[in-house]
Amino acid sequence: MGKITGFLEIDRQDRKYLPAADRVRNYNEFVIPLGESATRDQASRCMDCGIPYCHNGCPVNNQIPDWNDLVYHGEWQEACRNLHTTNNFPEFTGRICPAPCEASCTLNLQEAPVTIKTIECAIVDRGWTEGWIVPEAPKRKTGKKVAVVGSGPAGLACAQQLARAGHDVHVFEKNAKAGGLLRYGIPDFKMEKHLIDRRVAQMEAEGATFHYGAHIGVTQKAADLVDDFDAVVLTGGSEKPRDLPVEGRDLRGVHFAMEFLPQQNRRVSDEPLLNAEPILAEGKHVIVIGGGDTGSDCIGTSLRQGAVSVTQLEIMPAPPEKENKLLTWPDWPLKMRTSSSQAEGAVRDFAVMTKRIIGEAGQVTAIECMRLDDKMQAIPGSEFELKADLVLLAMGFVHPVHEGMLTELAIDLDKRGNVAADTATYKTAKDKIFSAGDMRRGQSLVVWAIREGRQAAREVDLFLMGETTLPR
Question: Who has the most CB within 10 Å: 125, 195, 228, 382?
Fold first, then answer.
């Protein structure tokens, strides 16, 4: 270990944001990196715990104390190599992961965890700048062909691992570019899309082939993949949104978040809107129903488009400001969190149920709500109305889309409607068909998708070759 008293001598310092008034003028990333010296100081705060719970807090099991120590000693290239042994895309997680590792940090017992996410991002960004991150083409080819359906983080991680193992990997993506929700769901101000393009170029140099506009089960038969490939991995994500079955749902101006967010991402990258009616928040009173990350992304996008006001409604009660660490640590705690987008000017309200959506001449004008008690029951007489010109439904996703590929292949589903496959083998009940990521586990984090993609790749390699050296 480097500086054994670092956590005592150096205060926690994290990245800062550009002022809200400046960042809402564009769709660029606005996080200000720490300098090299400050990052080194922050890395020195890592205590090298006897039992580093950050390993388990991180779904990909990053070797966090190891690369913290390497950064402290100035060995950045080795830190970059170490980081990539467990995470294919640390520049993604270094920007959009909620950092459960930091919740698990021993120093979080004193509200000052090591800035793990910031250090991770600094390592990988420097790795790209210095040219340390290069294609890792396989030394030999296996002669086996693998189809990966879906190019979100699970599909990309799976495809990269399998290509490096020497398999002929083909990635099928229904959209015009790779990335899944990384590209079409997460706004550019949280993660710019050239980061994805850079990784796709690396993967192509490693032997992966990308097929765009290939909507398996719609424009191309899924059965053909099963016939033509030695293994098929389904990583299509969880895209069926949770709806709001109330009066007025069919009014103009009421949209799913994933009708709204991809449009703006396509505008930023100069992609066509696919003949969809433009959904814009400019000059409107916007209501976002749903208090999670997708709702937060709707807020930031609406404010950048010029919304007059943005109100976010959450059906659950407001969480506590702070958790009881003696009960929750090192697990992820339920507590009040304010995202950068929420801090830009949204009004948040909790324990609110939408009773109906009100409109005139077919266009939404307001929503009627009721307040809920601590038992999630409506409080009589608590009705109130909010002016609304645009209502965005961001209440999460229930399961993958069943129509098309899954129906054609007659894939077994679990009780939640996800593809039935366990984490031991990632195999479905169908021969040579595997599944990973949100399509298998349900709506989750990017870092969990990367983990599942990596683990599924190992099981596919083992299935094809009878042995594997890919990491679990």
Answer: 195
Chain centre distance of CA 351:
26
Tokens standing for 254? 């009421």
Residue 469 tokens, joined: 């050296």
Predicted local distance difference test score (pLDDT) of residue 4 = 87
274 has pLDDT over 90: no
Mean pLDDT in residue range 376-382: 96
The pLDDT of residue 220 is above 70 = yes
What is the pTM for the complete model shown? 0.97
For residue 337, count CB atoms less than 10 angstroms from its CB and return exposed for 0-12, middle for 13-18, buried for 19 or more. exposed
d(CA 373, CA 378): 6
Side-chain half-sphere exposure of 94, counting CA atoms within 13 A: 28
119 burial (CB, 10 Å; 0-12 / 13-18 / 19+) is buried
- Burial environment of residue 56 by CB neighbours within 10 A (0 to 12, 13 to 18, 19 or more): middle
How buried is 196 (Cβ within 10 angstroms: 0-12 exposed, 13-18 middle, 19+ buried)? buried
Residues 6+ apart with CB under 8 A from 8: none
Where are the alpha helices (H) located in 309-422, listed in sequence order?
A: 325-328, 405-409
> 325-372 pLDDT, tens per residue?
999 999 999 999 999 999 999 999 999 999 999 999 999 999 999 999
pLDDT given for residue 1 in this prediction: 67
Distance between CA atoms of 161 and 208, rounded to whole angstroms? 10
Q: How many Å apart are CA 179 and CA 453, to the nearest integer? A: 14
